[in-house]
Amino acid sequence: MFEESLEMIELELSILIRRSTSISSNRKIGNLDRAAYLLLRRIASKGAAGVKVLAGEFKLDVSTISRQAAALEQKGYLYRIPDPLDGRAYTLQITELGTMELNEFKQARLVKIKEMLKDWPDEERKVFGQLLKKFNQTFI
Amino acid sequence: MFEESLEMIELELSILIRRSTSISSNRKIGNLDRAAYLLLRRIASKGAAGVKVLAGEFKLDVSTISRQAAALEQKGYLYRIPDPLDGRAYTLQITELGTMELNEFKQARLVKIKEMLKDWPDEERKVFGQLLKKFNQTFI
DNA sequence: AAAAAATAGTTGTATAATACAATCATATAC
DNA sequence: GTATATGATTGTATTATACAACTATTTTTT
């Protein structure tokens, strides 16, 4: 039972990752990239932060955050607030347009997931969300 | 409750995909690419098949399967069986070396997942696997 | 105070996994 | 026999990421 569950999880995770990252099943929604979505969302929910801090939270290279931020800024979704204490640094803050776009993107995703889970019992949706969260917290 | 679960699922899926596809958390194990793993595994479990069939099953472009197959063949994990009825086609079959490598890769992954889930109750592991499988089946 | 070292962020380059387009050889339809 | 379709491969591009190199600024050391 124990090994069987692990094997199922291992296989289904592989399939999930593959499916979710496939371009044909993960077409861009609106003007937001999938990659930059979490960045914008983080800033919206926890407030402005610098490139280094964000890279640390996401466990991504600073260059990746820098590029995502630049792209979002170019689109008008983020703006920079110079750090008054450090001439090299700034914090990234979301714009009103960014907030709107974020909500749109998020809604579109929710609609999609809602459709996928329309036949699920409420309890299973709840448990799935909780287990996903728990699983994500095992990543260090 | 309903919308809350959807939002949690939506967010946690985003995080999971990001974490799982990040290079730093998904370093290659052995000589098998993550991408080609499912291909090799499919052939091992269901038998030889052609490029077109496999592309259809995986909902990937034939060029992607073709490239993955070529890479696996180059490594000695797959070999080609010409289709006696069609001079253009062949089926891909796994080699003994491929089988061994597949099992090694799979074991390495299982060890990793086992470590991640070491504090989980058995029941949750079981449910997680089942819900993942169920979720994967909603992708069309 | 000046020099050396560290650091915040950007840019260059490369990698991995994928798709669309173009091509070639073979098979099928007319 | 000719035209069309098809299985697979190759060319090119895209996306998201990391490592390396760089610049300007800050901090530490001398």
Automatic annotation (TrEMBL), chains A, B:
Provide the alphabetized UniProt keywords: DNA-binding, Transcription, Transcription regulation
A Pfam family matched by this chain, by name?
A: MarR
Q: Where is the HTH marR-type domain?
A: 1-137
| Natural source organism | Neobacillus rhizosphaerae
Q: Has UniProt tagged this entry with the keyword Signal?
A: no
Q: What is this protein called?
A: HTH marR-type domain-containing protein
Q: Which domain of life does the protein's organism represent? A: Bacteria
